Amino acid sequence: MTARLNPYLNFDGDARQAMEFYREVFGGDLTLNTFGEFGQADTPQSDKIMHAALETPSGFMLMGADTPPGMPYTPGSNFSVCLNGDDEAALRGYWEKLSAGASVAVPLDKQMWGDVFGMCTDRFGVPWMVNIGETQG
């Protein structure tokens, strides 16, 4: 079972271009998923990036997305720290501690892409995302 800690960057409509640029810089495999692929095909953001992941040959993981409608985009504060993996017990434990006294934007729960996911800003103002995927076996 695994758990990884990595940066998650937010963009103002140009996540695809930014993540393709980072692939040119670092190399590796880039996965891009649009809002349209996850049930929002008939919306203005259907071709925008809901989730991108760049796995580099050096072992770096960089993730990002276009800021969804209704959420503010604030340059300089456009990042989160993401914990992700398939070690459900460890990730739920991290969530419980990080979300205690935090502002919870998305409760830790099953999401449309199939994983369990939550977002909070801890009591020190650091934004966190926790994503629990299925065990790879």
TrEMBL record:
<dbReference type="InterPro" id="IPR004360">
    <property type="entry name" value="Glyas_Fos-R_dOase_dom"/>
</dbReference>
<dbReference type="Pfam" id="PF00903">
    <property type="entry name" value="Glyoxalase"/>
</dbReference>
<dbReference type="InterPro" id="IPR029068">
    <property type="entry name" value="Glyas_Bleomycin-R_OHBP_Dase"/>
</dbReference>
<dbReference type="InterPro" id="IPR028973">
    <property type="entry name" value="PhnB-like"/>
</dbReference>
<protein>
    <submittedName>
        <fullName>VOC family protein</fullName>
    </submittedName>
</protein>
<feature type="domain" description="Glyoxalase/fosfomycin resistance/dioxygenase">
    <location>
        <begin position="5"/>
        <end position="130"/>
    </location>
</feature>
